[in-house]
């Protein structure tokens, strides 16, 4: 295909401003559009494709499993979901797993589980303290849990019971705790909020506070989990053990897969409380096992940290060169803080770069977020930094 039919796009609901191109092929850190133009991709489906586009281990798992069994129903056991659940349980502080299809659905499950636990153990306590500027998904309950500006007005009425504290301000959490509080929920690094890591004092303080008050600590690791931050799960950086964790994005490497994990004591769902047609679907969980094996192979996380160091140093060099405001992040979830609101201009110039484009993301007008494949090569990372240098010079002129 070499032409692009604008008219054909009218059949889709217009939910976001999309560029007038169609991606037709992907391999590793590169995408190709309908006209044959190639793009270096450091968005990777929004931190989803942890092994890049179309990794062989994923294609092999898909083709092998698709010929065996695709959908027996979650009312029966299937081997890939048992295998993946055991991988997760054996490599984490959690004992039980529920598989879902999206991060939002996993977070809905976390909210339900915390409320159920509140009914059973805390006289019906149901409030979950979340953070300003947080992002937990796009269902009605997860939008209510999210602290994204303006979202409280979008689809009224909101789901009740999500008071908002301030990230990295323990007193703001303390001030919100009352008889009806059951949990505190946060992203270890706020992703959509602009790559804002929790400080060690805050995360460890939250764990101590929630323990003292008999509350659950829920970490939304949909974006930060699965090696993205240089450890298998980001909460491991803080040396804490949460009660509930959600995973999404990287867990499927690009296929719809997510998970809700909890400790044994907190795993209180009764029959009928939780389910879903596709939960633990063997086609997706077989991919999940392949991704898990790749991420936990010897040396993999070391190389993630080496690329993270390369990215961090490269961004710092650019920041110094152009007088920008530095960089931040954890592992391969990083942001470059600009000295003005030209993030979207950079995104556009990068995409239109010729002959090859660069796919960047600006979650805020004054910053760029980087979430490359965890196995991006040293050369591709370097290419990205060289191109970015020229783009910054061009856009700031
Ligand atoms: C992306 C994201 C979600 C939502 O995941 P979906 O799969 O889009 O539903 C939830 N929480 C965080 C932290 C995310 O980054």
Notes on the protein architecture:
This protein is an alpha/beta fold. It has two domains: 6-55 and 300-396, Aspartate Aminotransferase, domain 1 (Alpha-Beta Complex); 56-295, Aspartate Aminotransferase, domain 2. 35% of the residues lie in helices and 17% in strands. It has helices spanning 44-47, 56-68, 79-90, 103-121, 140-145, 170-174, 200-213, 282-295, 300-322, 343-352, 378-396, and strands at 23-27, 30-33, 38-41, 96-100, 127-131, 164-165, 181-186, 189-190, 196-197, 216-220, 244-247, 258-262, 327-330, 333-337, 357-359, 361-364, 367-370. The strands form four sheets. Strands 4-12-11-10-7-5-6 form a seven-stranded mixed sheet, with helices on both faces. A four-stranded mixed sheet has the order 1-2-3-15. It has a four-stranded antiparallel sheet with strand order 13-14-17-16, with helices on one face. A hairpin with a 2-residue loop joins strand 1 (23-27) and strand 2 (30-33). Helix 2 (56-68) packs antiparallel against helix 8, helix 3 packs parallel to helix 8 (282-295) and helix 10 packs across helix 11. The longest helix is centred in the C-terminal third of the chain and has 23 residues, at 300-322. The protein is globular, with a radius of gyration of 21 Å. 47% of the residues are buried. Bound molecules: pyridoxal-5'-phosphate. Pyridoxal-5'-phosphate (PLP) is lined by residues 102-104, 107, 135-137, 187, 191-192, 220, 222-223, 248-249.
